[in-house]
Amino acid sequence: MIDYKRKVVLGGLPQKIHVKTLDAAKPVLLFLHGGPGVCNRHGIMTAHADLTDSFTLVGWDQRGSGGSYKGAKAEDLTIDRLVEDAFELVQWLCREFHKDKIFIIGGSWGSELGTWLAFRHPDQIAAYVGFGQVVNGAKNEQLSYKFALEAAQKAGDSKAVHALEELGAPVMGVYKGGYKGMMVQRRIMMKYGGYSQSAKKRSYFRSTVLPMLFSGEYSPADLWGIAKGHVFVLEKMWPEVGATDFPSSCTHFKVPYFIFDGRLDQNTPAALVEDYFNQIEAPQKELIWFENSGHNPMNDEPEKFKKLLRERLLKIAEKEKNV
Questions:
Q1: Helices in the chain by DSSP H: which ranges?
Q2: Which among 236, 244, 262, 217 is positioned nearest to 107, based on CA atoms?
Q3: N or C: where does the chain have the smaller number of CB atoms within 10 Å of the terminal CB?
């Protein structure tokens, strides 16, 4: 059993990772969290720790987030810099575990980071898996805002309708008021099941914050970095994230490309995914729908998700040398 947390210098900044596995010879699976700025080590290393029977799991707090908050500078919070951080981490993991290639999996913003990583630095990537797949930032937010507004109108929720109308529709994926404006939309979208059907019964705080606090995964310094970093990172990066347009920029891949997407996702709307997937060229590609899932099918339908993840990735590992 291997289970350790440490900092690795990526792009000149010490950044926090957690490695966990039953066998270090297993294929390495690097998780790329969402947000940007919303860490996910707590979920990976608790609810999904059973994946250690098949993989060496790696959770990573990206630059400016959680355990990687200290020392992060606003001018370095760019897509290009985070892609290069991720690439340096891939290289480090290949050296650490004597691998030629590793697997990467990303949700929400992590799917955007992972897509760029697989596109720009394919040589040490065995395969990419995305969920809550980002396709086009501007269209994404248009559809998500429209869903929230129409759901609130249908429910006769005048308070939510007023809040959304006062906020206004996003422009190029960016909401008036930045982070605060986005959270107005996100809370209402979540209330009406656009994130997850189960999340309708819980507030954003209970769904997102409390699991972090009570997981035991994060040190006090990490929690401080989570509290400060998620706003810091998102405010700085969101205009660039909102300008993303993968169908016009990123369709040709040299690695297997999988999308495991929730049919009910209105956070990164599922309606955009299939057309993008059809444009993708890759040695192997597959789009798998999770009919009862929203933004995070790994949590909504965990057994199905992990069964398919093992099947697809371990089959590739059997064929590849030293994965």
A1: 41-44, 79-96, 109-120, 137-154, 158-167, 179-191, 204, 210-213, 220-242, 246-249, 273-279, 297-300, 302-319
A2: 262
A3: N
Fold of 2-136+220-319: Rossmann fold (3.40.50)
Using an 8 Å Cβ cutoff, are 140 and 269 in contact? yes
Taking the CB of residue 248, how many other CB atoms lie within 10 A of it? Answer: 9
Residue with tokens 């926090």: 16
Which amino acid does the sequence have at 258? F
Length of the chain: 323
Q: pLDDT digits over 236-265, tens only?
A: 999 999 999 999 999 999 999 999 999 999
Read off the tokens for 303.
């057994």
DSSP string covering 45-58: TTTTGGGGGT-EEE
Neighbours of 19 (CB within 10 A): 21
DSSP code, position 143: H
Domain boundaries, the chain: 2-136+220-319, 139-205
Which residue type sits at 211? P
* E runs forming strands in 247-315: 257-262, 285-290
- Amino acid code (one letter) for 6: R
Q: What is the dihedral of CA 28, 279, 303, 313, to 10 degrees?
A: -30
Give just the sign of the alpha carbon dihedral 15, 228, 43, 129. Answer: negative
Residue 264 near residue 292, CB atoms below 8 Å:
yes
Instruction: Give the pLDDT confidence score for residue 200 in this predicted structure.
Output: 61
Q: Is the pTM of this model over 0.85?
A: yes
Tokens coding 36: 């940007």
Indicate whether 276 pLDDT > 70: yes
Nearest to 28 by CA among 103, 91, 140: 103
Question: What confidence tens digit (pLDDT) does each residue in 20-52 have?
Answer: 999 999 999 999 999 999 999 999 999 999 999
